[in-house]
TrEMBL record:
Family to which this protein belongs: Belongs to the iron-sulfur cluster assembly SufBD family.
Protein name, per record: FeS cluster assembly protein SufB
GO biological process, one term: iron-sulfur cluster assembly
Coiled coil segments of this chain: none
InterPro entries, per the entry: Fe-S_cluster_assembly_SufBD, SUF_FeS_clus_asmbl_SufBD_core, SUF_FeS_clus_asmbl_SufBD_sf, SUF_FeS_clus_asmbl_SufD, SufBD_N
Residue ranges occupied by any SUF system FeS cluster assembly SufBD core domain in the UniProt entry: 184-409
SUF system FeS cluster assembly SufBD N-terminal domain boundaries: 27-172
């Protein structure tokens, strides 16, 4: 059996210094951190024979090159973010190297009881309100060593809490930035109480195109009965960032979630995205857009867990790959015995822009109920040179032709996104990354 990786990194002394720098945290949170740290020390790093990790090589990852976010760091001047263009925001948060730099919320929203801003700050100010949600363990700290590390040492991050029956019309926005060599352990926690509605746009960025760093984070979305959440997460780190994340949503009775993922950056990404439909008539739509270039490696494990009857889940991931990049998508639909009349769908499509790129797609079903409709599928194909030639005869350059084809490939996902600014931002970001495939590459794309 393949041994677990040996990765040297943070020590107990580092962890105690991290806790000492946070004297105002409630005792119950400190206890949870210590339990997670004990789990972190007990767990091995992922083994190469682990099904989730056998296609993702992290032997070049060195945790000891990074440090826990203990000392405050001054944030540089940051761009507002791709998702904010032409959007009237109800609130905004900026984080830098896992620490809040600024946050704001409109007076009209604050007067309704909405909480939005730095999770570090708000968990201390509203400890009793938030404690039950932390104790749910939406993301299990025992999942793997990265999950345990995050649960013990999360810092900074975003909280959105919307009280019962409150509907927010203006989107809220959070930007998390990494400086060169920085560490981001931020947590995003979204809680929509019974009948609440909100839209949250989150994105990540690096301070320069070459800035290296580490992100080990989580996203936890809690959608209570009759609540509706639109959530967007744009991962746009530089190509020198290690990106590890556990992301999970729970949607209760008659709740609705539209979750859009844009994965454009990072050197290597290993993301577990889970959605759980916990009450009858819950509805989830997941949209994923991935674009890779150079030697990027993006691995996404998605899991649709139907736990209650009459629920619907619809997942569509599309990936376009250039150069020697690689994507790995492992999808699973799990239907419990109690989840009769389930309607579940998952699909992953890949567009190969170079013969040297590689896409692994592994859909799966685990069904214990007998009255369900579950569908899954995957396709991979190369750019049709006849389409490129046709566009070029109409006056387009080769680059413009490839951009048109890529835009058409992603259009099915864009059509599902109900927020116009998000559609435009993703489309523009992808278009800028499409390289000019010269004539030497054309034979590789045929067939």
């Amino acid at each position: 059996m393949t041994a677990a990786l040996e990765i040297q990194g943070f020590t107990k002394t580092d962890f105690e210094a991290f806790l000492a720098a946070r004297p105002n945290e409630p005792a119950w949170l400190v206890d949870m951190r210590r339990q997670a740290w004990d789990r972190f020390e007990q767990l091995d790093w992922p083994a190469r024979n682990d099904e989730e990790w056998m296609r993702t090589d992290i032997r070049m990852f060195h945790l000891n090159k990074f440090a826990l976010p203990i000392e405050p760091t001054e944030a540089p001047s940051l761009n507002p973010g791709l998702l904010t263009h032409d959007v009237d925001l109800g609130g905004q948060l900026v984080g830098y190297n896992s620490q809040a730099a600024s946050d704001s919320l409109s007076d009209s929203l604050a007067s309704t009881g909405v909480l939005f801003g730095s999770l570090d700050r708000l968990v201390c100010e509203y400890a009793d309100l938030l404690r039950p949600f932390f104790e749910r363990h939406v993301v299990d700290p025992a999942k793997d060593k990265f999950a345990a590390l995050h649960a013990a040492c999360w810092s900074g991050g975003t909280l959105l809490y919307v009280p019962k029956g409150v509907a927010i019309s203006e989107p809220l926005h959070a930007l998390s930035a990494l400086g060169d060599g920085g560490t981001d352990l931020s947590k995003t926690l979204v809680i929509l109480d019974d009948g609440a509605e909100a839209t949250l746009l989150t994105e990540t960025a690096s301070t320069s195109p070459t800035a290296g760093g580490l992100h080990c984070g989580s996203i936890e979305l809690i959608v209570e009965p009759n609540a509706k959440l639109r959530y967007v997460n744009l991962q746009n780190w530089s190509h020198n960032v290690w990106h590890f994340a556990h992301q999970r949503a729970t949607v209760d009775r008659n709740g609705s979630l539209q979750w859009t993922i844009g994965a454009l950056g990072s050197k290597l990404a290993k993301v577990n995205q889970q959605v759980a439909l916990t009450g009858p008539d819950a509805d989830i739509q997941v949209n994923g857009v991935m674009f890779t270039e150079g030697r990027q490696h993006l691995s996404y494990n998605t899991h649709q867990h139907h736990m209650a009857p009459y629920c619907r889940s619809d997942l569509l991931y599309k990936s376009a790959l250039q150069d020697r990049s690689r994507t790995v998508w492992r999808g699973m639909i799990k239907v419990d015995v109690a989840a009769q009349r389930t309607d579940a769908y998952q699909r992953n499509d890949n567009l190969m822009l170079a013969s040297t790129a590689r896409a692994d797609s592994i859909p799966g079903l685990e069904i214990e109920a007998d009255d369900v409709r579950c569908t899954h599928g995957s396709t991979s194909g190369r750019v049709d040179e006849q389409q490129v030639f046709y566009a070029m005869t109409r006056g387009y350059t080769r680059t413009e032709a490839i951009r048109l084809i890529v835009a058409g490939f992603f259009q099915q996902v864009f059509d599902r996104i109900t927020i116009e600014s998000v559609r435009n931002a993703l489309g523009d970001a992808i278009a800028r990354r499409v390289q000019d495939l010269d004539s030497a590459a054309a034979p590789q794309l045929e067939g």
